[in-house]
């Protein structure tokens, strides 16, 4: 059973998400929070698998709460999915850099929300259903200039190639077709790259691909 916490200052939003998620045979909403501080307290008490976190909340916003979650060893297994009203929310890329596993717009289709919860718990990144590669590049363009710090020194040439394709927004299946390998082989390369770089998940690998300079904004056309 996938255990989920809902953190949003709008009661109706939480009620809608709860009704949808609790109707699934493999998902259970174990708690709710109306602001970031409540969310942190609930997370430490309930230890859910994932939290749906609104970006804009009173007392402590979702971005600050996410930063605290990813810095707390007790919460290292919790996957954070940020909720936003607009796909071009100015805080989304920063949230992913802080450790969020992805984001969803609040008006996403119900089946996509359910799929998203399952995906992040399984370790996949969620850069929003329907999110375009242009959007990934737009967030990446706001990141810091690449630093020559040897971040990628531990990677093989193949792992660098795979990481670059992840940075371009490709799925394992798309990477497999590009490199003429099986999807399982592509997934293995992605997993090994994440381990070597200490990336929490695929979303953070995308961030590292841009921040290391392996992929540059504008390459996507």
From TrEMBL:
<keyword id="KW-0597">Phosphoprotein</keyword>
<dbReference type="InterPro" id="IPR000792">
    <property type="entry name" value="Tscrpt_reg_LuxR_C"/>
</dbReference>
<keyword id="KW-0238">DNA-binding</keyword>
<dbReference type="InterPro" id="IPR016032">
    <property type="entry name" value="Sig_transdc_resp-reg_C-effctor"/>
</dbReference>
<dbReference type="GO" id="GO:0003677">
    <property type="term" value="F:DNA binding"/>
</dbReference>
<dbReference type="InterPro" id="IPR011006">
    <property type="entry name" value="CheY-like_superfamily"/>
</dbReference>
<feature type="domain" description="HTH luxR-type">
    <location>
        <begin position="148"/>
        <end position="213"/>
    </location>
</feature>
<dbReference type="InterPro" id="IPR058245">
    <property type="entry name" value="NreC/VraR/RcsB-like_REC"/>
</dbReference>
<dbReference type="Pfam" id="PF00072">
    <property type="entry name" value="Response_reg"/>
</dbReference>
<feature type="domain" description="Response regulatory">
    <location>
        <begin position="3"/>
        <end position="121"/>
    </location>
</feature>
<dbReference type="Pfam" id="PF00196">
    <property type="entry name" value="GerE"/>
</dbReference>
<dbReference type="InterPro" id="IPR001789">
    <property type="entry name" value="Sig_transdc_resp-reg_receiver"/>
</dbReference>
<keyword id="KW-0805">Transcription regulation</keyword>
<dbReference type="GO" id="GO:0000160">
    <property type="term" value="P:phosphorelay signal transduction system"/>
</dbReference>
<keyword id="KW-0804">Transcription</keyword>
<feature type="modified residue" description="4-aspartylphosphate">
    <location>
        <position position="54"/>
    </location>
</feature>
<protein>
    <submittedName>
        <fullName>DNA-binding response regulator</fullName>
    </submittedName>
</protein>
<dbReference type="GO" id="GO:0006355">
    <property type="term" value="P:regulation of DNA-templated transcription"/>
</dbReference>
<dbReference type="InterPro" id="IPR039420">
    <property type="entry name" value="WalR-like"/>
</dbReference>
